[in-house]
Design brief:
Pfam families: RabGAP-TBC (PF00566). The protein is mostly helical and 282 residues long. Helices cover 62% and strands 0% of the residues. Helix 5 crosses helix 6 and helix 11 packs antiparallel against helix 12.
Length: 282
């Protein structure tokens, strides 16, 4: 379903993965594959869905497939002068759980070519587009959740402080696996607008925790590193092997309750209007 929903707008051949992996392997054998990038890849893999034990370095059953997919992706990106972006290992891993590397590579390439994801993965060349997406998010937050919006403004916290962390891994670093799987189902079908709807829902679930008087504490909470919440989780004996926001009790059910509640004010027409205003060339 994901493969059909994402499509192949890039018109990549079914052998695209094989060709890019062959180039990567030649570079690895010749010692010309950048060692710094290999380091980034290994570090990214080491933090990818650790509770599933599928991608554990050197011994996980899907470790080599994931590394191959990421090396092939680096080669494909190098043709555009783009480098590695930490977080992509989570996306590749989620695809590998659902399909073989070759079709997974095609889905990943096309999924990350959707404009919002391409912008966040585009480095300095897409900085202006990323800023436009921040303004769109701020507008939607102000319209739908004004208390959170004004609290963030008071603390001078922009979407840049948390949105890239969520989007670069498509929430897999912060939300439980089951919640992410459900988000991905809708995301594949509906596209960029659902990315923002899910992100707003995450803030909605966290809302009661967001009114710290101290900016540092608020940023720690958004990073999933709030010491008080961690201590409560440990005291309660909870096993924390999901996303970072598991310490706050964020799960599939609570998240979807917020997404459903947004029907009262979320309008696709508003999203379309904001895209046309901020990114008129799309």
């Amino acid at each position: 379903m994901w493969q059909s929903a994402v499509g192949n707008d890039l018109a990549l051949s079914k052998d695209a993965f094989k060709a890019c992996l062959a180039r990567a392997n030649r570079a690895l054998a010749a010692g010309t594959f950048p060692t710094t990038v290999l380091g980034f890849i290994e570090d990214d893999i080491n933090t990818t869905l650790p509770s599933l034990h599928l991608f554990t370095s050197g011994k996980g059953p899907l470790y080599q497939d994931l590394k191959d997919m990421l090396c092939a992706w680096v080669v494909a990106r190098s043709d555009e002068g783009l480098g590695y972006v930490t977080g992509v290992a989570k996306i590749a891993a989620m695809l590998l759980i659902n399909m073989a590397p070759a079709p997974g590579f095609l889905v990943m390439r096309n999924l990350l070519e959707r404009h919002c994801m391409r912008s966040f993965y585009g480095g300095l060349s897409s900085k202006d587009d990323v800023e436009a997406y921040y303004r769109i998010f701020d507008t939607l937050l102000a319209d739908g959740m004004p208390k959170i919006y004004f609290n963030f403004k008071q603390h001078q916290i922009s979407p840049a402080a948390y949105l890239p962390d969520w989007l670069l891994s498509l929430f897999l670093e912060h939300l439980p696996f089951e919640a992410c799987a459900r988000i991905w189902d809708v995301l594949m079908l509906e596209g960029d607008s659902f990315l923002y709807r899910a992100a707003l829902a995450v803030l909605g679930v966290l809302e009661t925790r967001l009114f710290f008087p101290d900016k540092k504490e608020l940023l720690e909470l958004l990073k999933g590193e709030n010491k008080a919440a961690l201590e409560v989780a440990r005291r309660d004996g909870r096993v924390l092997d999901g996303g970072k926001y598991e310490i706050y009790g964020v799960d599939e059910e609570t998240l979807w309750e917020r997404i459903d509640a947004m029907d009262e004010w979320w309008r696709e027409s508003t999203w379309t209007r904001l895209i046309q205003r901020e990114l008129p060339d799309l």
